[in-house]
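A further point concerns the way the authors explain their paired sequence and structure data. Since the whole study asks how a given chain folds, the encoding of that fold should be made plain. A single example would do more here than another paragraph of explanation. An entry of this sort, consisting of the sequence and the corresponding C-alpha cells, reads as follows:

_____
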Amino acid sequence: MTTSTEQSVVIIGAGHGGTGLAALLRQSGFTGPITMVGDEEHLPYHRPPLSKKFDGPSVQQLLRPAEFYADNQIDLRTRSRAVEIRPATKTVLLADRTEIGYDTLVLATGSTPRPLPGTPQGTTSVITLRTLDDADTLNRSLTRGGELAIVGGGYVGMEVAAVARSRDMHVTVIEREERILARVASPELSRMLTDYHRDRGTTILTGRSVADLRTDGDRVTGVHLDDGAVVDCGTVLVGIGAAPEELLPRTAGLEYDDGVITDEYGRTSDPDIFAIGDVARRPVAGHHGLRRLESIPAATEHARHAVAAILGQEPEDHEVPWFWSDQFDLKLKIAGLTTPDVTVVTRATPGKNAVSFFHLQPGGNVVAVEAINVPADFNAGKKLIRSGAPVDAAALADPSIKMRDLVARSEGA
C-alpha cells in the first residue's frame, strides 16, 4: 500500500492495539481515511489500571487526548459494534446496519473473559473484569460490603486481591490448580507470591473448584466448593481466562484456531485483513508453533509490524515478549516465554523483596526471566534471551557478579 488517499483502513477494536495502529499509520505518513470501530461508549483507555487501580480516581486513563482523533483525521466510532465482515465487497456491517468499506481491515477485537459456568442469570455481583464499566461495577459491589471471593489465581485475580486487601477487605482466592499462576509462572514465583499474599491476609485455596453459588435474589452470598466447604462473600470476581473474539472473523472465513491465524506481521488468510493483539495467533521468534499473547506490549508490537506490512515498509526486529504486574509493593516484570524442561535459577538481590528467576534450557540459554523489584535483571534478561547464548548458572545466581558483565560475556560468545 502507498500513502495515497485512495486507500482506506478500517480498524475494528479501540483498545491498545487498534489505537496504537491508527496513530502509527499517521506517524508513518499514511494520509488515507482511517476508521476505528469500538463497541464501548468511552474513548480508548488504558486497561491495566482496571485490575491494578480499580478503586481509585486514576482508573480512567485515556490512551490519547480526546482531540487526538479529530486532529489526526481518525474517524472514531464509539458505541458501534461490527457484526459481519464481507470480504467479497470489502465491507464491514455494523449492528445498526451501517456498512463501512475498506481497502485494508484490521481486527483488534481482543478477548472476552470466560464466564463462571452455572452462574444464575441476573446475578449482579458475579463480575468479570475487562472494561471500565466492569471496574465500576466491581467497585460499587465491594462498596456495598461483604467479602470478596476471586475464582482464578491468575494475574488479574491476584492484582485485584492486592488492591482489595489494601482496602482491608477479606479476600479468598479459589484456584483449581495446585498453585496460583500455574500456566504462566515458575513454581518459585508462585510460591513467593502465595506467601506474600497470605502474609498480608489473603486466603488462598488451591486445588479447589467451584461447585455452585449461593444467592439471595440477584446477590451472591457464598461460593460452594467441590469439597463441600462454603466461602461466604458478597462479590465474586471471575478470572478464569479469556477467549479471543471468534464470531466476527468467522464471518469473513478467516483461518481460525484459538485465535485468528496470522503470519509474523499480522496478515491473515485474507491478504487484505490483518489481526493484532489478543485475537491473533501467530509465530513468535525463537519458539515453535503459533502463540496467542495476551499483553499490552504484544498488542503494541503487533501494531508496529502490521503498519510496516500495510505500508510496504521494512519491518523492525521482533521484540522479546514481555509483561508486567503490580501486586502490593511488588513490581513484577516478565520477559520471554516459559517452556518445559527448564532449570530455574534464583538470583536474590540485596534489598527488600528483590529477586529474579531465570529460566534456562538444557543448553544454558535463557528463555525467560521473572524479575521482582529488579528492573536491571529484567532488562539484562531480555538481552540474554535475544542473544540465545549460554550463561553460566552459578554466575547468574551470584548477585556479586554484575548482570552487565554476564550480558557482555554472552554477547561476546
The chain has eleven helices and 26 strands. The chain has three domains: 9-112+243-311, 115-240, 329-412.
